Each structure stands twice: as structure tokens, then as C-alpha cells.
Amino acid sequence: MSVVRLEHLTKTFSGGTTAVDDLSLTIGDGEFLVLVGPSGCGKSTVLRMIAGLEDASGGDVFIDDQRVTDWAPKARDIAMVFQNYALYPHMTVQQNMGFALKLRHTDKAEAQEKVRETADLLGLSAYLERKPKALSGGQRQRVAMGRAMVRQPRVFLLDEPLSNLDAKLRVSMRAELARLHQRYRITTVYVTHDQVEAMTLGDRIAVIDKGRLQQVGTPEELYRAPANRFVAGFMGSPSMNFATVELGGDADRVTMTLGGQEFGLSDVVRRRPDLARYLGSRVVIGLRPAAFSVAESPGVAALTIVPLGVESLGDEKHVLFRAPLADVSVAREGTDDMPVTVDETSGAQLWTAKVTQRADLAIGRPVSLTVDLSEAYFFDPVSGEAVVEVPVAAPVAAAA
After folding, report:
1. Residues 250, 227 within the same domain
2. I need a surface site. Which of 195, 229, 330, 349 has the fewest CB within 10 A?
3. Domain count across the chain
């Protein structure tokens, strides 16, 4: 087990594209850290620089306080599992798993014993004499993992290893990865664009966008206290809904108008003192889909929306509707110029509400949704930085 430290890591390609921009990060001894972000954000480039497969344009990589920036990949004692498995097609499972030990001139009997132990752990004992073409996708992925595990490296690097598997197999393989890490506690860096994988696997998650590190924290920290609008929108499924609103009233009674309806924000300034400077001006509000519910009684402040889509998921329903504006009446949502199908651009103008399965909903039929504004998030409209909530109570100091 080892500590990996990245200091001001930068990668600029020959065409002038900066894939990683001044990234500093420490992965603790035995930690499972997930690098997550949209496609092309630079997360795989970070992984390849840790492995030594990509030269850094600036900054340094340290493993256990040893500067390894200029070391060859084989000298770093790192095992990497790729998205495409990278198995040798002419070798059996046993030969694939034992290949790295053969290169190290490990005693043959010892190597065979390590391969057998790892195969037992991964459920591959019955397939040791098969070649990769005779295996399923999940079995090939386990062989790739086993080949890395038998080496007992200082660090595991996994580059979207589950993306080629079907949905059900991905779930079981996530559980397998978590179990293996719990047993061996080898420092692991895992790259994915799937925030569900990140939330379920990572001890901590590092969110990257356009080559820059946005936030690092536990899954709970990133979900409950996002540092900025990007993190808030990326972590959580369905993603957070955003609108720019103007805050009215005073510190004792803050109000906002959304979709033609005025809402009161109780004690919001007390919980977020920095929000006081936005009174009388605009701020971005963020609402997770679970903050909505179908209004069951008249007279309560609610959004009247027209569903564009209703997705029934068995135990709940997701309602898609056009984002309500601060200064436009929702009555317009029933007009014929509403889009029925959406592309990536118009999709950003859609909101999602998560409601109970028993809710009576239909596409095109107006419905009123109440909003739990105690669950609202606020972001600066220019910088995107979060207006943070103050702690309820100061933490208690640990006893000496």
C-alpha cells in the first residue's frame, strides 16, 4: 500500500490543448479514490500520467514521497486495468494472469500458487485453461483484474473497467470490486464518467471538469455540500435543476418568484449568511428532483407545470417539464410551441421531478408541484460558486 501525491500536474498536447491544468491531489494509503467527470475532462490523462504512460508537461508525481515523474512505467510498480481488457488472445487464463510474474522471474511453483489463489477469489478456477475468446465479457474483465492482482502492486489504476459490460453485470462487478478492495486495501485510483459508480465505489471522489479539479470529498460531502454549480449538477441522478431568480424581501422574510408563483424562503439567510448580499439581485437556485411532490391540497404555493415526459420506474415516477422562468408565467407552457422532442441543447432547459408511483400524471396535462425549499441550493450567477450553509453546531473536539 502506498500514498500517491500529485503536485501541480499539467498536460498540454502538441496542438496546444490543455487536458490537465495544475491539478494537485493526494490519494491516501489504502484509499479507493474515484476520478469522475464528463468525457474529455482529462481524468484518463491523469491516470496515464500516474502510470507513466503519458509524460507530464508540468508538475510531479510522488509515490510514498519518491518522485517518480521521470520513472519508466515498469519501475513504478503499478498495475493498470483498461477498458478493453488487453488480454493476450493466444494465452490461456492461467498464462494471462501469470504473465507479469513470469516477467519478474518469479519461481514457477510460487507463481502458479498465486494464480490459483487469485482465480479462486475471482471465481475463475474452472476457466484457467480457456482462452479469452471462450469467455464472457464479465469473465474477461475478472481475468484482467486477476492479472493485476497477482502482482500485488503498490497502486491499482482502473480506467473505466466496467463500461463494456451490460447494466446488470456492472452492478455485480461493482460489488466485486468493493469486496476485493476491502480485503486487500491496495491504494486504488478508479476513472469513470458514471457518477453512480463513483458514489457507490469511492472512499472519496475527485470531480474534474475541463482539466481542472473542482472538488474532492466523500460521496456524501459532494452530494450534500457541492462546491459549485458544476459539481451540484454532475453528482446525483437525475441531476439537479437550476434557475436564475431574483431574491426579494429582507433578511427576515426572503421571497422569490418562480414560474409566476411567489415563494417564501424561511430562515434561508440565517442558514446561509452570505446570501444576504444577493437580496435585491439575482442568484442561481438549485433543486434536486426529490424536492418536488404533487400538490394534494389547494391554496399552497406550487408550480403549475405541463409534463413533457413521464417515466415510470416501478417505485417512483420521473416527470420532465420545461424549466420554469422567474419572470414568465407558467401558463405559456401549454402553448403549441413547446418542444415535444428535445436535443442536447434544449435538454438543458428541462427540469426533472421525482414523485411517488401513485401520482396521477399524463403528458400534456397540467399538474401542480409543491417545492421543499429547505432543500434548495444557491450559487453565484457569475462564478458558479456555492453559497454555503453554515454548520448547525461546531464540531466537538476529540478527547486527548
Report:
1. no
2. 349
3. 2
